[in-house]
Amino acid sequence: MPERRRTVRDEPDHGDDRDIHVVRNTAKPDRIPTSRFWALGALGGVFLAVFVMSLQWKDAGRIDDVSVRGAVHFSDKEIMERADIPLKALLDTLSLGAVRERLLSHPYVRDARVTRIYPDAVAIEIVERIPVASFMSNGRIRYLDADGVVLPYLPGEAPYDLPVISGIPELPRTRVGQAVASDDFFEAVSILSAALESDTSVYRLISEVDMKNGGDVLLFSSEVAVPIIFGRGEAARKFAILRTFWNKFVREEGPENLKYIDLRYDDQVVAKWNNKPRKSFNASSM
Fold first, then answer.
1. Whether residue 221 is found in the same domain as residue 150
2. 250: domain range?
3. What letter would DSSP give residue 283?
4. pLDDT tens digits, 111-133
């Protein structure tokens, strides 16, 4: 009887020198097609080339140009100095937030946008604050924008022909770059806006808005500083009456002969000329 071939599973290992025969699977593994090797190699080469090129591109992306838009009060040179963007620095290492903060540190800059433009440029877009009124502080001219932010006088710039706001105690105490904390300021701005909406000639007629520290508002004309007792409220209606009265009566009599105008009444204008008694004019009949 022929001897049966032993396998590992037939007998345990006794530590002796007996021959142990192992049955192996002699089936050949499936071969990967040669074309797939070539495709994988080509794809890896492409990724490697793109990676190397991206590193080279980033390294070559040094700042060569800085453009500025939106600046009215500043020259491009002044914006560049404040932005402090180092030319030839790597574009990707530039902190856009830090550049923006440096620009916003100037009180005339309301907003700033800084953008990378690949491969080698930076774009700066400025939104400036627009003065709408002025005031005097310790003998110096200061401007105010519609948000009440105090703006400095810019040397070398033609001074704005803006109405003066007075009678607000908080104004001279507010520093440049800070906003005025006063409701009276915003009422003064609304009065000026109503004058502009009524007629540009009415707006140009006003040289000063005195808020009287919460009392009846007093306007002064740009022609010979005629006092106009304005009161509070109904600004649009009052400016419509003022425009008609000024064109019909003041032009004829001469503003230099007018002592004051009172617009606080609903249906009449009270005026006082020099050396004449006070006179009332029916507003609806003018």
1. yes
2. 131-285
3. G
4. 999 999 999 999 999 999 999 99
